[in-house]
Amino acid sequence: MPRLGYSYAFLDPGAKRELRRSLLKAVALPGYQVAYASREMPIARGWGTGGLQVTLALVGPEDVVKVMDQGDDASVNAANLRRFIARMAGVKTSTDTAQATLIQSRHRIPEEILGPEQILVLQVPYPEPLARLEPSFAKARELHADAEYGLVWLSLYEDLVRYRTATHGADYPVLVNGRYLMAPSPIPRWDNPKLHRAQHLTLFSAGREKRLYAVPPFTEVRPVEFEDVPFEVEDQRGWADWQTGVRHKFMTELPLPDGGSRHELSDRDYARKRAAHLPTQPTYFDEEGGFYQPGYLAPRTPPERLERLLQGEP
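-> structure tokens emitted (314 positions)
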């Protein structure tokens, strides 16, 4: 290729080596936050610099790159990142989840099941899952070292007592490989189960906070939950996509001028294929709402049973 005046995939070789060493350490210690020297990028911190650096450190000429933002490939942020990666690395890009080998995403995991040859990179704003419970980062490090997560269980119990449900709408904390508490980035609770024993490698990176971590393939990922009050995903059982009628997939609620609302599939590539009657890959949640790994998600706790449990009754 002609001389371009910059390193392949924008990052200099030293930056790539440092990132790759950090990623290897993160894979070896699932859920553990690894510090790295976050470089200056041609976009502002907080707009996906962490995920972009990991993608640029991994991308190769044979890759097919997909970038999505909250399920949409056509958003301004996703389009700009995809254009930059393609220009710097000379790779092909695609909006089709099945064709991509390297997927960078903000706040969503695709609906279609990812395979072992694919890598998912999630952008992370705040990598510390104890941040809202322990303001001191030094103390939070000690709690991680001792695997002392009593504050998290106490917070969940207080939520159940006060609100009768968990208040984490997104970024619901998970325990990785039975050891480290991890922030799964602000993905909805709907996407948390997709990390459990997944075939693909998932990488998380926060450029502003200079931390990255990983969930290797086939790793145990369990949400923080009580045995008698199991974890629940968002209740969208009555929702259907207004264009295709598809149900039991994560939806976005759209307000209407008359004060009502309608719902559409959050994963726009999956919605496009369903609307055009194109073939799709198997999805994490089937057409009846069942998760693809039987037994992982327990049945929902009826409100009356939750009330009895909170009153100390069997």
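Residues 251-310 form one domain.
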